[in-house]
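ugh ok so i messed up the first submission bc i forgot one of the chains. this is the corrected input, ALL of the components this time, i swear. 994 residues overall. if the numbers dont match what u have on ur side tell me asap before i send this to the collaborators (the ones from the other lab, u know who)
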Amino acid sequence: MTHDLETIAANAAAAAVPFAETPPRDRAAALVAVAAALEANADELVGIAMTETGLTEPRLRGELKRTAVQLRLFADTIVDGGYLDVRIDAADPDFVLGPRPDVRRYLVPVGPIVNFAASNFPFAFSVAGGDTAAALAAGCPVILKGHSGHPELSRRTAEVVAAALDTAGMPDGVFQLVTGQAEGVAILQDPRVKAGSFTGSINAGRLLADLAAARPAPIPFYGELGSVNPVFVTQGAIAERGAELAAGYVASVAGSAGQLCTKPGFVFVPSGHGLDDAIADAAAPVAPHRLLNPRIAAGYRARRDEILAAAGVRVVASGGIEIDGEEHGWATPTIVAVSLDDLIAGREALLDEAFGPLSVLVEHEPGTDLAALVPTLFEGNLTATVHAASGEADAALLALVRVLTEHAGRVLFGGWPTGVAVTPAMQHGGPWPATTNDSSTSVGTAAISRFLRPVAYQGASEQLLPAPLQTANPWGLPQSFSPAGESAHWGRPVAIG
Amino acid sequence: MTHDLETIAANAAAAAVPFAETPPRDRAAALVAVAAALEANADELVGIAMTETGLTEPRLRGELKRTAVQLRLFADTIVDGGYLDVRIDAADPDFVLGPRPDVRRYLVPVGPIVNFAASNFPFAFSVAGGDTAAALAAGCPVILKGHSGHPELSRRTAEVVAAALDTAGMPDGVFQLVTGQAEGVAILQDPRVKAGSFTGSINAGRLLADLAAARPAPIPFYGELGSVNPVFVTQGAIAERGAELAAGYVASVAGSAGQLCTKPGFVFVPSGHGLDDAIADAAAPVAPHRLLNPRIAAGYRARRDEILAAAGVRVVASGGIEIDGEEHGWATPTIVAVSLDDLIAGREALLDEAFGPLSVLVEHEPGTDLAALVPTLFEGNLTATVHAASGEADAALLALVRVLTEHAGRVLFGGWPTGVAVTPAMQHGGPWPATTNDSSTSVGTAAISRFLRPVAYQGASEQLLPAPLQTANPWGLPQSFSPAGESAHWGRPVAIG
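and heres the new structure output, hopefully the right one now
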């Protein structure tokens, strides 16, 4: 480890205790200050982001706003305090297994975390994005591994974040930036780092997850990797709103040039759906959109060629990609169709994710058992979507929905999976390879719990208890209380015989 | 994989969906039925356990009762339904980032799990123990890897559990037993298995955790491994209740021949504590107790010899171990003392766990900075204990407590760490190597969440929603509701400036 990384790890470790001990209201005010600072610097930051990523100004302004809103939501969440899961068992001389002591449990920050930023969301999944907001909300110092795709934006955003945290009185070392692949790998393995988070490719995510698991002291690693987000459209939905579906589909594939983890990669439709013209018409006016960087452009061009060359593939909207003088790729949406049989026969070429504005219509015959099909085609996904007619709820559809919940973290009815609301109930995660750890989410307030661990105090006097566990409850948090005497009744509400 | 294991994995996978769909009240009644069946067969089961483990009848009867109580507590927990963490975001046309759909999130069972039983708790951490109860409560089929230390008890308990679940109407395949190391390793790697749990040694636990992480699709693995449970006694506590402390200490070390994961392995006392005679007197009348099996006896004898031979070790209560004609070891408690300096100098020989009735008094000079010392001696532990005088709460003590919460999952004040209450607030886990995964507990109702994963439904009609997410709320569960309109106010309660 270089001297710089040693300093960074030491700084983060030194910040861990004072940061963990900040009252939630102060930490929340610091999050709000970061949100305000991002907005105050929006013109400059969005300008750098446009140059470095090729994403559009409206998209980037919206993403910056989302990033600020996320920080404010998390501020409210920690002030509310329910996320600490405070549980208090009263001492109980009549406990069914013998006298039991007073036991009080809550969640504490795990310590310094390293967050690997993504390329495709330069605000919302990067320096000041969801993982950073969740870790800071939890009370964990953040070491941010900047993405090489937007280095200047990473540097400036980190300055803005660190300055806002400093002004708000947070400890030194609570937010630091590192850059470089080797540096990221080294810091993940530092014993002072207690958890990792990541958004990116399956290959990179798996590599890092394996390193985290192989440490002398393993740590949790929350990686969001690959997802193809299958969509299932019934004949009834097409009859009811075919043109609207075609337009929504193209918009979801074309937005941000398809460089979204929730882009609908496969759309299952009944043969004879008749949507080709509406899809082609919706795609035709879409202007070329620059891909994030030359590496992604080259990868997308090769993947697109591979799909177009696969047996049985029919072009519905051709689209294309042009490489400019700086090796940047400019893409328009490509929609192809393939029969279910050809998809199955050509699965090696067809089933992997295409990162860019390409999607595959899969045409199946009436009566196809889609519920049985799903496990044979897909592992885990972030999302799965069903478009049915209003009121449609036959046994086949219910069986399909049931199977989709086993293979995805979020199942949508109507709408399209791109555009993830930042809310208390949002779930952004899913079975492998959508994520390395399916027990959590990287969007929404439940994301905070990834960076917490439980600690119980047994038999402690009020003066030795931390504020959340005190009977006086000075922060006014929700406390779940188990009174003495109740153990005699356990099991009775559901007693048998 | 042999034919038998293939059948077992297939059975568990087939049971997963129908078991997940059992209403909580039915699943709770099944847990209560298992509890009743264990109690109805207590005489036979305790008899087998005495022969196979050498543990005493009172201990085993108490442990069986605890196991039954645990099942009843979990039954109540799933009927209450709070463990499902139901969150409902209302659709919101005025959402700050643009109209948001209705999103509803809850936790669903992960699918079949494999649970590796421990040797030292033939009921509470074995076939029908905490991990089994938690997984069944969650709605996950259980494949139980029986421990070779009590094969007949494992077989009979599994019969009792499976029969009770069957009579209660649970699906076939919901509980199955496998035996053999190679078989356990194979089933953990079967793609149909979705999580693992384990209680045992650091070596075996790390091996299995590594296998779980290295699968093509990694799965969570919850292993409880090694812990030495340091105790810190102040001069004030000794002055107040020295004799009581000596007696409590010996009882905690001697119980179940020290073969408990929470046995106090190191007790830090001020030099000149004067407790030697009281400890020796308390240890003298303890009768020899059989160790669990010949392998543990041989390991304990070697470990004890190593500690007795280390430089600076003084015997306070000699104890011993005799090997009988069947290679079983019969042990009495050994308490030794060593200066802090000698502990540090001899850390290679002294600091590892001694699995059996041996504990080390560590004598330190007045003014020793214990808070600074802890991180240099210990990684993670299940517990840490403080004995102080009533009202004692000086800065040094507060600093020590603060550090202990970073190194242990449960911090006790007074009392001894053995004897873990099964309650909502209990925490039985801790930083590596106490557990492989510090985000959870293996005792208490929070243990259920290890076997759940979140799923969100977006824009679903009432008829397509599972019962817990329906507005009608047919099971009467707690539902956390986020109304429309509130996003405009996020961050305001803690606004700055």
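quick check: The CA atoms of residues 227 and 261 of chain B lie 6 Å apart. that seems consistent at least. Chain B touches chain A through 105 residues (CB under 8 Å).
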